[in-house]
Write a structure and sequence with these properties.
It comes from Parazoarcus communis SWub3 = DSM 12120. One of its GO terms (biological process) is carbohydrate metabolic process. Keywords: Signal. The protein is of the alpha/beta class and about 250 residues long. The chain has one domain: Glycoside hydrolase/deacetylase (TIM Barrel). The chain is about 30% helix and about 15% strand. It has seven helices and ten strands. The strands form three sheets. Strands 1, 4, 5, 6, 7 and 10 form a six-stranded parallel β-sheet that branches. α1 packs parallel to α3 (about 80-90) and α5 crosses α6. The longest helix is centred in the middle third of the chain and has 19 residues, at about 150-170. The two termini are about 25 Å apart.
Length: about 250
């Protein structure tokens, strides 16, 4: 029962109470299952790292244990305050929330394209409140576009503009990025590098290991249907990405 040579960066979206869905299951997690998953991490000897701590490990500046985990939450849903924060505080776990800088306090309108309800996103005031509680924040772009499909000007605005906007909201440096929909290519990664981010995460399924491009780190999506066995399976068995991980030829961890 060992993590295979790396850090499991877990990807969540909404946590709450939802009807069962057939599609987009990785964008929902029942709050009771989330609570039991976090209890398993707490009781099972796992070490939950902040993204900054994970970065130090991946750079070789700190050791990686066999059970290192990072908790990430995409989009920044308002339900985080009610369902996620109390559980994290109960166990003393850090977490990274990736915010869509241009949509704070608005609805996740892209859900409507699939006929789904459009949940509310955290407002700037809620983000600052969570920051005071110790929650970390990164950028999930300016407006949640598939970045690999955008022209260079749009890409710069989505990546660099979102960083500047969030730094104004938070009053601190924003060092971490997450590609919306996992959409990334080498041009996108270069834009993230030029914007000054230290890490960026994808939707590629694998542990994050030293030597990987820090701006194309893999993650493991937690699905609505994952019970504790499924959660354990993702931690310890689902270690092979569906295709090779991207890396800039000149990058170094």
């Amino acid at each position: 029962m060992r993590t295979v040579g790396g850090i499991n960066i877990l990807m969540y979206h909404q946590v709450g109470e939802f009807a069962r869905v057939a599609n987009h299951r990785s964008t929902y997690c029942d709050h009771r299952r989330f609570a039991t998953q976090m209890a398993l991490l707490a009781s099972g000897g796992y070490r939950v790292l902040s993204m900054d701590q994970a970065l130090a490990c991946l750079r070789g500046e700190a050791p990686i244990s066999s059970r290192d985990v990072v908790l990430t939450f995409d989009d920044g849903y308002e339900s985080f305050c009610r369902y996620v924060l109390p559980v994290l505080q109960r166990h003393g776990f850090p977490a990274m929330v990736y915010l869509i800088a241009g949509l704070l306090g608005r609805r996740a309108e892209w859900f409507a394209r699939d006929g789904r309800e459009t949940p509310m996103l955290l407002s700037a005031a809620e983000v600052r409140g969570l920051q005071r509680e110790g929650i970390d924040f990164g950028s999930h772009s300016l407006s949640h576009l598939k970045l690999a499909h955008q022209d260079d000007a749009t890409l710069r605005a989505e990546v660099g503009g979102s960083r500047r906007m969030l730094e104004d909201v938070l009053g601190t440096e924003v060092r971490h990025f997450c590609y919306p929909y996992g959409s990334h290519d080498l041009r996108t990664i270069d834009a993230v590098a030029q914007a000054g981010y230290a890490t960026a995460t994808t939707c590629m399924r694998a542990p994050a290991r030293p030597g990987q491009d820090l701006l194309a780190l893999p993650r493991k999506a937690i699905s609505q249907g994952d019970n504790l066995l499924g959660f354990w399976w993702r931690l310890h068995v689902k270690n092979q990405p569906r295709r090779p991980l991207l890396a800039r030829p000149y990058c170094g961890a």
